[in-house]
Design brief:
The protein is an all-alpha fold. The chain has 2 domains: 244 residues, no CATH class; 108 residues, no CATH class. It contains 10 helices and 4 strands; from the N terminus they run ααααααααααββββ. It is elongated and about 90 Å long.
Length: 365
């Protein structure tokens, strides 16, 4: 074989199947619940990642098959089986352990990756023996693989869900619409197949260009072409990941509905006379400022007269630079007369303990 085809080859089909499997796996819940639109973005990122790795990884196996035989389905299947067996053995020999060295974890990850693209190649090769229109057959197999991926995570619950009362302990509990998720899965599968056709043409073009520059047959440079197209897909995937991070961060920074109104105390940042508008406070900052105790509450417990506690805070949104935020904070300290009190406590920016809880650090003088 001296040239490459612009149509879906076996590696492209393996990428489609691995992308479909990862699309199903992307429904695995994490600590926080997800809305349908967030899940759609995650499914797209998972599909692109799976397709990129599946095509590139399996293309390397096809290159080995071409050099050890005629490169037909039989030789390719033997290479896939040997690779899958060796990769599974590696993963089983390196089970996950707490505090394990990074090198061990990377080796296990490499084994999982190679086992994945080898298994996808075997399924893609087997699908070629199914009678019918190749595009229809591939669509059906991809949907089945996506369902299998979803089955591996079906029944898992978000980390915020309390097993005792079944209630989600988060500010906003989101749900994924089953009909919309099914449609999104079908659309993702269709887009995967369309992307497969586009990537096949793109990688073939890269392979022909490499052959023209470096010499040899275009088929000899197909793996390099796959890697080049994978880099292109990875760039698009990175942009999608960035979008996901921005969207998921919104729920963690927006103030609670109960804390939308500014405090009525002048001793608290955001209250009357404050130099920092209340709209500049984040969710955790607004919680901390609004949770300030009143003198009567302290007196009830301590059985002695109490003054109104002072709380000042400069959020990241209050100014552009650290120096400007420090100046605002010092001005708030002067405004409230905090240094005239007998006890002065400093709180650092909140430290995230988990995805749902925050732990502030404190120093007192």
């Amino acid at each position: 074989m001296t040239d490459v085809t612009d149509n879906l080859d076996l590696s492209a089909q393996a990428g489609i199947l691995l992308g479909a499997f990862m699309t199903g796996r992307s429904f695995q819940p994490n600590l926080l619940s997800r809305a349908t639109k967030d899940q759609a973005i995650l499914s797209g990122v998972a599909a692109a990642t799976g397709y990129g790795w599946g095509t590139s990884g399996h293309s390397l196996l096809r290159a080995v098959a071409r050099r050890t035989g005629r490169g037909g389905l039989g030789t390719g299947a033997v290479i896939d089986v040997v690779t899958l067996t060796a990769a599974v053995a590696l993963v089983r020999a390196l089970p996950a352990h707490e505090h394990e060295p990074p090198r061990r974890a990377l080796l296990r990850l490499a084994g999982i990756a190679k086992a994945s693209d080898a298994a996808a190649g075997l399924v893609a090769a087997g699908a070629r023996f199914i009678p019918g229109n190749p595009s229809v057959v591939m669509s059906g197999v991809a949907l089945g693989i996506a369902g299998a991926g979803y089955a591996t995570v079906h029944g898992a619950t978000p980390g915020s869900l309390d097993s005792t009362d079944g209630r989600a302990h988060e500010d906003v509990s989101r749900t994924i619409s089953a009909p919309k998720a099914a449609v999104a899965g079908a659309v993702t599968t269709g887009l995967l197949i369309a992307a497969g056709h586009g990537e096949a043409k793109l990688s073939a073009g890269f392979a022909r260009a490499a052959a023209a520059v470096l010499g040899g047959n275009a088929a000899d440079h197909r793996t390099a072409g796959r890697l080049a197209s994978f880099a292109t897909i990875a760039a698009a995937g990175w942009g999608a990941v960035t979008l996901v991070n921005r969207k998921l961060a919104v729920g963690g920074s927006a103030p609670d509905n109960a804390n939308l109104s500014a405090p009525e105390l002048s001793e608290v940042t955001g209250g009357p006379g404050s130099l920092i508008p209340w709209e500049k406070q984040s969710r955790e900052a607004s919680r901390w400022l609004r949770e300030v105790l009143r003198p009567e509450q302290i007196t009830e417990i301590m059985q002695e007269p109490a003054k109104q506690p002072i709380r000042v805070y400069a959020s990241l949104a209050s100014a552009q630079t650290e120096a400007e935020r420090a100046d605002l904070l010092l001005a708030e300290i002067d405004r409230t007369g905090a240094l005239d009190r007998s006890v002065f406590a400093l709180f650092s920016p909140p430290v995230r303990a988990t995805s749902t809880t925050w732990r502030p650090r404190r120093w007192s003088t």
